[in-house]
Amino acid sequence: MNDNQVKSLVELLGHRYSTFNPFTIAEKLNIDIQYRPFLKAPLGDTIDYLGRPIILLADSLKYSNQKYFVCAHELGHAIEHADMQAYYISSKFASTHYEIQADKFAVSLLGQFYMEEHGHVPDNWMDLVHTYGYPSL
After folding, report:
1. What is the distance between the alpha carbons of residues 109 and 7, in angstroms, rounded to a whole number?
2. What's the CA gap between 114 and 55, in Å, rounded?
3. Rg for the chain (alpha carbons), in Å?
4. 44-49 and 52-58: which strand pairing?
5. For the chain, how are helix, strand and coil distributed in percent, rounded to 5?
6. Which of 2, 53, 73, 82 has the most CB atoms in a 10 Å sphere around its CB?
7. How many angstroms separate the CA atoms of 104 and 64, rounded?
8. Which pTM value belongs to this model?
9. SS3 97
10. What domains can be seen in the chain, in order of their start residue?
11. Which tens digits make up the pLDDT trace of 9-61?
């Protein structure tokens, strides 16, 4: 998925669900979000349970602004990569490629969410990072 396709997908989701909040979008798409104990990394994961994606977030994120970025990133996987799980696991290239795509989706979604909440674009990258987190992995 190229940058224009990511942007179009984010705009479609935002207009369809009247928000760019990743938690609300996941709820509207019937994607369950659960907090679970994780080791230090990763901070999130998307699993398939009986054909339905479930987003797992680290317990440590529950009260952190980083939960927004990790949720948006995992939402990107749930939407864009639902059918790629076996290939993703078997290919280091695919793993890196899909992680970059999910990051781009998250940044695009959270940029729009920032505008929704604040009425203007972030002044700089750090405004987005401080508001929604960007975990250093």
Report:
1. 8
2. 22
3. 14
4. antiparallel
5. 60, 15, 25
6. 73
7. 21
8. 0.87
9. helix
10. 3-132 (1.10.10)
11. 999 999 999 999 999 999 999 999 999 998 877 899 999 888 899 999 999 99
